[in-house]
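It is worth pausing here to work through a concrete case rather than discussing structure prediction in the abstract. The textbook approach is simple: state the sequence, then state the predicted structure, then interpret. We follow exactly that order.
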Amino acid sequence: MSVFVRGFGRVENVSVGGDGKGKHERGSRSDEEARDEALRGDAGDAGAHGDPRDDVETVDTEPGHVLPYEAITEVMRAIDPDEPPPGQSPAQSSESAVPPGPQPPLQERVEQESAEQGPVAEDRSDEISAHEVSADELPADEITAEDEHGADIAAENSSVTDAGAVASHDVAAENDAAENDVAENDAAENDVAESDRLEDGPVAGLPGEGSPTPLTSEEPDADEAIAPEPDTQDQPTPPSGLPAAGHVSSVGPGPVESAPTQAYSAVTPPGDRGPMAPEPAGEDSATVAIPVVAASSEHQAAPTAQPAPTAQFVPAEPADGDTEGQPAGKEEEKFSRMKIAVLAGAAVAILGVFYAADMLSTSGSVPRGVTVAGIEVGGLSHEDAEAKLVSELGPRVNEAVVVDAGDQQLQVVPSEAGLGVDWATTLDRAGSQPVSPFTRVMSFFTDREIGVESTVDAALLDASVESIRAQTDRAPSEGDVVFEGTTPVGVTPAPGQTMDVQAARDEIEANWAFGAVEVPVETVDVTVHQDEVDRVLAEVATPAVSAPVVFTGRDGARAVLSPENVAAVLSFEPDGDGVLATRYDTPAATALLAPQLASTETPPKDATFALGGGAPTVVPAVVGELVQWPKTLEQLPALLGSSDSRSSDAIYEQAQPALTTEGAQALGIQEVVAEYTTGGFEYASGVNIRLTADIVNGALVKPGETFSLNEYTGPRGTAQGFVESGIIDNGRPDRAVGGGISQFATTLYNAAYFGGMEDAGHTEHSYYISRYPEAREATVFEGAIDLKFTNTGKTGVVIESFGSSSDVTVRLWGTKTVDVQSITGPRSNPTSPNTITLPAGNACVPSGGGPGFTASDTRVITDIATGNEISRDTRTVKYDPIPIVRCESPEPEPEPEDEPADRPAGAAPPAAPPAEDGE
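Step two, the predicted structure:
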């Protein structure tokens, strides 16, 4: 874009709106340029006003009568025709413009503007005058301003006008500088630095193709000398507040001896720009350089035509709020501050009155906004608050409180759990009236819950909490697979939970009054999750019951594990690492399969001893052949998981007997080491005695082993052929199945006694039976009283036992190494029997009774080889008297027995001693 600038000529590449187009090229002259040339005279007069380089250079001749302010106005109008002059709003632009016609002299305009601006402007005017440049020092052809008659006036007045505009613009800056001297000095130093920078560098915005071209005034004549550009340190210092903007050297016609004229322009920070300084438009705005040139007073060119009307200079108005340096503004600001202080003081006083009134009205009452378990008591007196709590909160101690414990919801009644309300302490929680005004104001809009202070019966509360724990605590339920018949079913895992007993106790004690309590419960996770259950169900359990599993034995025999029996064999168990491990119960599988192949097996048989003919002989052992089920069932997991082959052969192996032939021969069974015979029993007792002798006959007691009569014979009931016979029950004769076996026990005890066996436990009868030796006899009762002895010799012992209708004999075979002697001691401490009368009948066994006494027996063991005594042991036995039993008819009415005084009412009588089977 090409713009004609008064004082500069036409400037190319003025970028408007940011397009950045164009070069610094000279274009064709417009009508306005032609008119300005007419005002200057002959455009081709290079010596006075023209520049022969105008046709080729980038800058036109500068009309000497155009002021810098008017040049700015022309630039702004070239950019935007509707733009008002600086310092005027669009509404004022029409009013501020000076109509065409004669203008008043410059000095008069300055004085008029100073009078309008008041004392501040006058002070400014004096300051500006101090910095004016004398007209004698300027070339005459540079003074181009016009007077009211159209004649040029001195450039001095133009300089004054320009400086006055700057001074008006900087009024606020000067006032600020007066309040902060340090900041003003810093600004002045920065201005001087800026002036030096602009003097040393080219004028911004001048045309040129890559090299700076200084903008100069019209070219002087050839005979005129151009003054050399002086060093910046010799230049005059710009006025305070007016930073240097650079300089332009220019010499008009005629001799010039004065130094180059220094031009000044105000550099105002963006925030302090006045109305005469438009805001910078940024990088894309038009760049205009406005030099100030000095003209000689001897050369004043008369205008050849009437100049175009120019915008009237309007003094800059202070910015809004900029009242510093203006006495009226300071007074107004001071008055405003006083009003604010008075209003603030009044507000504080009013608030103080309200605060004092509130403090007095609430003194002695519960602080405002206080609630107890949701019941509002704030603002009430302590007596009224307590009465309200007793009325509304009191009944809650007998109402059930909901207790949330994890996934369970239980109930507890506070009174039954030992909980109550401490009314006085509860209200004490509210505290006293707050002093803070903020707290008192907030109490109108907020509530403060203080809870309940409970009275506690520790024992009852602990019992209630333990009852809750028993219902809430549970172990985690691991994922599993079970069988319902032949259908495998997955068990969904469920986490367990554990209640924190102490925390639950504290929570219930603190919050029961609210009607609901949540106690802390910790979840216990499972190790086997649903994905593992699904895997086992699909890969193991379902195939296991898909078909039977068959084991084939000898001769085509088959053992079948049906799907119905798989559940007894197959199970699953967590391994602790998240895996559901498979468990195969081999003993259970053996119990199901072994009977099916038993006919194909040969059981082993131990070596035995034939005791007939006066000397024992060894009957050889038999080696068996049995199915080895542990080895056979090693294939069971693969068979249960297979969908094709589900059968396998049973594995047979030899089975050695427990006692081999060689082992029997090494036991040293050679001779009879002891023998004993008893008799005098009744028929029924004889049946039981002979049956027991047959069972025990041939029993082997290896060296160091202990023989137990009850264990060896096993159960002695009717299923084994035993019959009812006489026993001793609770100290008196009675009858029971298996009675009479005590006589076989006495016979066996005496054989072991004289065979040198060690007594491992036996019990004598409760009263003495005449057919047994005193203090050397024994009784037995199945499951309660047993007979045991231990073989302490180095050789084995074989028991031979047999009976007849009148007696029974027990003989021990082995190797005799000791002699045994029995010494019976005298009786002592005799006691008389009691008489018992019982109703006649089967339950009554009459007895003549017998006295009781104390007896003893001493056993002496001697080594056969050396004759040395090995041991001597004495055993003392106390026998009770045999009661006299009378059976009478008719049966008398039973008389209630008197219970002992020390027995609690309803207590059962003492347990009777076990019965003795035998006579």
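Step three, interpretation. The chain has a mean pLDDT of 73. Residues 327-361 form the longest helix (35 residues).
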